[in-house]
Amino acid sequence: MLSLLAAAVCLLASVLAQTPPSYTLAETDQTLGLSYGSVSVQAGDTLPYKVPSTTPTLSTSTPLNSTYIAIIVDTTANLSSPIPASLVYFQQSLTFSPTTGLASANTSAQVPYLPPTSVGHAYLALLYTQPAGFAIPSNFPYNDTFRVAFNVSRVQADFHTPLLAANWFVLGSNCSTPPAYTGYGTAASTGFALPTHGPFVKAGVVYANGAAGRF
Ligand SMILES: *[C@@H]1O[C@H](CO)[C@@H](O)[C@H](O)[C@H]1NC(C)=O
Ligand SMILES: *[C@@H]1O[C@H](CO)[C@@H](O)[C@H](O)[C@H]1NC(C)=O
Ligand SMILES: *[C@@H]1O[C@H](CO)[C@@H](O)[C@H](O)[C@H]1NC(C)=O
Ligand SMILES: *[C@@H]1O[C@H](CO)[C@@H](O)[C@H](O)[C@H]1NC(C)=O
Ligand SMILES: *[C@@H]1O[C@H](CO)[C@@H](O)[C@H](O)[C@H]1NC(C)=O
Ligand SMILES: *[C@@H]1O[C@H](CO)[C@@H](O)[C@H](O)[C@H]1NC(C)=O
Q1: In which domain, by residue range, is 132 found?
Q2: For residue 166, which of 60, 96, 151, 183 sits 20 to 30 Å off, Cα-Cα?
Q3: Mean pLDDT for each 10-residue chunk of the chain (215 residues)?
């Protein structure tokens, strides 16, 4: 009985996801491969909170032979702010291996990956083609310690580059022992678990084509 109650409380956290703001980003049909260890994110997944705690591996299943910029944002970091998104990750100079499809970069991230902490928030991973000769603008204020008010809609215009691929997940419950999601494998006692595919995903924000660039 106790464990059932604990599970119910844990689930509540993801059911109470905040409504995303109404701003619109560019859309894309192309999925950005986004993996945390053995967990490969399917757009709209709810991830147990410890799963996205390390820098993800980005990948592509279609050939991407140029140089790219990857950005991860918490789209609903501060709903009181006119620019509600916070920057989680900003990595430039990414290339994808033509054989494995895995991304790598020869330079450290401008804004290193910060493990998501806001349960119920949507985290959006976006890939842009990096313009030739790209350099981080001198007035780009973001770094490891300054991440707030990142206007995602401006990326395209400021960096003169269209959105190419995307993926996203919702940060799930923070349970020391996560509930065992029926049908999705047994949750490990460490807080790691397989992602859930559906039960807590908000109706209407799952994109059938597997990628989302809009809320
Ligand atoms: C890169 O990929 C595009 C699209 O698949 C292709 O048209 C182009 O020839 C490729 N370029 C190189 C240098 O391989
Ligand atoms: C959220 O944004 C509002 C308006 O910009 C600001 O006053 C407030 O300090 C922000 N809250 C946090 C936690 O950053
Ligand atoms: C890093 O990779 C980028 C993109 O492939 C390339 O333009 C640049 O020359 C590389 N820099 C170094 C130091 O290898
Ligand atoms: C998760 O729960 C633990 C234990 O209650 C707490 O210490 C930690 O701050 C929580 N983390 C987040 C991201 O809420
Ligand atoms: C991070 O960015 C903020 C705002 O642009 C700036 O005030 C701060 O000095 C920067 N910190 C570092 C370590 O560069
Ligand atoms: C965010 O950027 C978009 C695109 O440049 C712009 O239209 C919008 O006004 C910006 N939002 C805020 C609150 O500055």
Answers
A1: 2-171
A2: 183
A3: 39 36 58 90 80 94 94 87 90 97 96 92 90 88 94 82 84 62 37 36 30 31
Specify the pLDDT at position 5. 40
Ligand 2 pocket check for 81: Cβ under 6 Å: yes
Domain assignment present for residue 209? The answer is no
Residue 30 lies in a domain: yes
Instruction: Provide the CATH number for the domain around residue 47.
Output: 3.90.280.10
Q: 105 in ligand 3 pocket by Cβ < 6 Å?
A: no
* Residue 193: predicted pLDDT: 37
Report the domain count for the chain: 1
Q: Given this model, what pLDDT does residue 130 score?
A: 94
The pLDDT value given to residue 60: 94
3-state SS, one letter per residue, for the chain: CHHHHHHHHHHHHHHCCCCCCCCCCCCCCCECEEEECCEECCCCEEECCCHHHCCCEEECCCCCCCCEEEEEEECCCCCCCCCCCEEEEEEEEEEECCCCCEEEECCCCCECCCCCCCCCCEEEEEEEECCCCCCCCCCCCCECCECCCCCCHHHHHHCCCCEEEEEEEEECCCCCCCCCCCCCCCCCCCCCCCCECCCCCCCCCCCCCCCCCCC
> What does pTM read for this prediction?
0.79
